[in-house]
Amino acid sequence: MIKKCFVLGCLILLSSCGQTILGNSVDVTHVAGDGLPEPTRVDLLSSNRPYLIGPFDKLKIDVFGIDELSKEVQIDASGRLSFPLIGVVEASGITPGELADEIERRLQGQYVRKPEVTVNLQETVSQVITVDGQVDKPGLYPVVGRMTLMRAVATAGGTSEFAKLNDVVIFRNVDGQQLAGLYNLKAIRRGNYKDPEVFANDVIVVGDSQARRLFKDLLQASPLITTPLIILTR
């Protein structure tokens, strides 16, 4: 059930709404401002999570007793690596230990009797954003220098042919709270408002109606024209 709560002030003040999205009840609160606030230093760190391999990471793979199979590799932009004898391995989104197990599984029997594989991170790209939805190359991308929304979308290959450019949502955690901002790429290109900066751990969803559903009631009263729409999800 979609619950709607409006508080009307002198103009239009939208303070809180309850939505149902992806099967879960989500409370949202409209946040005043010109854009999403910047994350804190703590928000940018993820030391309590197991490290998941991502695009452009550099790994050292050792196969015990077989120097020819021990090598340094770099994950490509699609999250894959090419390894001797076994070919292409999907590495993105798994831990180094899980990758070692997969390489052992593929080598065992046919190529090596009892392989022992270790995988160590040589150079990690922990500062990444996620770009999903109607872009040519969805995935994880490193944040190099100052990254904006337009640059992030371009890094992911640009929008697809029929992408909804007025339907771009950025999800961000700030001080333990999850915020979402709805942006219009067409409006940014026209100069209606500035191209917002994006940060590590942001999730950008282009042209996804389920993400945009959070903003449904707010848009009915305050169409997105010259400013982004920011909400706090609880």
What does this structure look like?
This protein is of the alpha+beta class. It folds into 2 domains: 17-45 and 127-233, Roll (Outer membrane lipoprotein wza fold like), CATH 3.10.560; 58-123, wza like domain (wza like fold). The chain has 6 helices and 15 strands. An 8-stranded mixed β-sheet has the order 1-2-15-12-11-14-8-9. A 3-stranded antiparallel β-sheet has the order 4-3-7, with helices on one face. Strand 3 (58-63) and strand 4 form a beta hairpin. The protein is elongated, with a radius of gyration of 22 Å.
Number of domains: 2
Biggest sheet, open or closed, and with what strands and sense? 8 strands, mixed
What is the CA-based Rg, rounded? 22 Å
Secondary-structure arrangement, i.e. CATH architecture of the largest domain: Roll
- Give the termini separation: 17 Å
Low-confidence stretches: 1-25
Strand content bin? 25-35%
User: What is the number of E strands?
Assistant: 15
Entry keywords:
234 residues; alpha+beta; Outer membrane lipoprotein wza fold like; wza like fold; 2 domains; 3-stranded antiparallel beta sheet; 17% helix; disordered N terminus
In a few lines, what is going on in this structure?
The protein has helices at residues 41-44, 96-107, 149-155, 185-190, 209-212, 216-221, and strands spanning 17-21, 24-30, 58-63, 71-74, 80-83, 87-90, 117-123, 128-133, 139-142, 147-148, 168-174, 177-183, 197-198, 203-206, 229-233. It is an alpha+beta fold and 234 residues long.
